[in-house]
Design goal:
Blueprint: H1 2-18, H2 22-28, H3 34-52, H4 60-80, H5 86-108, H6 120-144, H7 158-175, H8 179-200, H9 203-231
Length: about 230
């Protein structure tokens, strides 16, 4: 299975990211140029697929399926895309391509997925842990730090999303038993924050950042350890 899957994935990522110039990406967003540059794009995909599969023509139907569906998926994405849904459509587009590749691989080399390794309880526990690490913890921190009346200098809520990513990294590090990564993350954040705190010369800001960071890191590790403990009994 992997001997077919890896070349197909390589061809996809090479064609979509490595061998697609910015000029083509911009041209595809213009309706009158879209067909021509989409054909260029899928043409590159077809060539990379042939090379990655070492011109093994017994896979011609699978390659043709990938190329045609790639054109259709990209066309639909470009027709529906706007500034509001651009990020969602990017990931939906990539997921669609990967599903097609997985289906092609399955048709040539059927594989069995062991459903016993997953249960609804394990899936719900994992989703709940992600929700706790992101939205729930963000609200808890906001409530706990409400006594610090800081001026809202961040209307895009970048700090909130940075905190979410930070806790997801900690969650991953704990699951991998890579505690050194948490220390590195804390050190990197301290370095980046040092300039802001040094320039601000504001004790309230320093307390706000320090307490917020400690609560964020502490809750992230607590949730991760709780997830590991409960997961053992499912």
């Amino acid at each position: 299975m992997l001997t077919l899957l890896i070349p197909l994935l390589f061809a996809h990522f090479a064609g979509d990211f490595l061998l697609q110039p910015d000029k083509w990406v911009k041209a595809k967003s213009v309706a009158k140029h879209r067909p021509k540059f989409l054909l260029y794009h899928v043409g590159v995909h077809a060539l990379v697929l042939l090379i990655a599969l070492q011109f093994q023509l017994q896979y011609w139907l699978g390659m043709l399926t990938i190329v045609i569906t790639h054109f259709i998926i990209d066309w639909i994405k470009l027709k529906c895309q706007n500034k509001k849904n651009e990020i969602i459509l990017f990931f939906a587009d990539q997921l669609s391509h990967l599903v097609v590749i997985a289906t092609v691989v399955y048709c040539y080399e059927p594989f069995v997925f062991d459903t016993k390794i997953l249960s609804i309880s394990k899936i719900l526990l994992f989703i709940m842990a992600l929700v706790l690490q992101t939205q729930v913890t963000a609200i808890i921190i906001k409530v706990l730090l409400s006594k610090w009346k800081m001026k809202d200098e961040n209307p895009n809520q970048a700090g909130k999303y940075i905190g979410m990513l930070e806790r997801l990294f900690i969650f991953s590090f704990v699951l991998m038993n890579y505690w050194e990564g948490i220390g590195f993350l804390l050190g990197a954040k301290s370095i980046f924050r040092f300039g802001d705190l040094n320039n601000a010369k504001d004790r309230n800001l320093t307390e706000y950042v320090l307490i917020g960071t400690l609560i964020s890191f502490g809750l992230a590790m607590l949730i991760a350890r709780g997830y590991q403990y409960i997961n053992l009994y499912l």
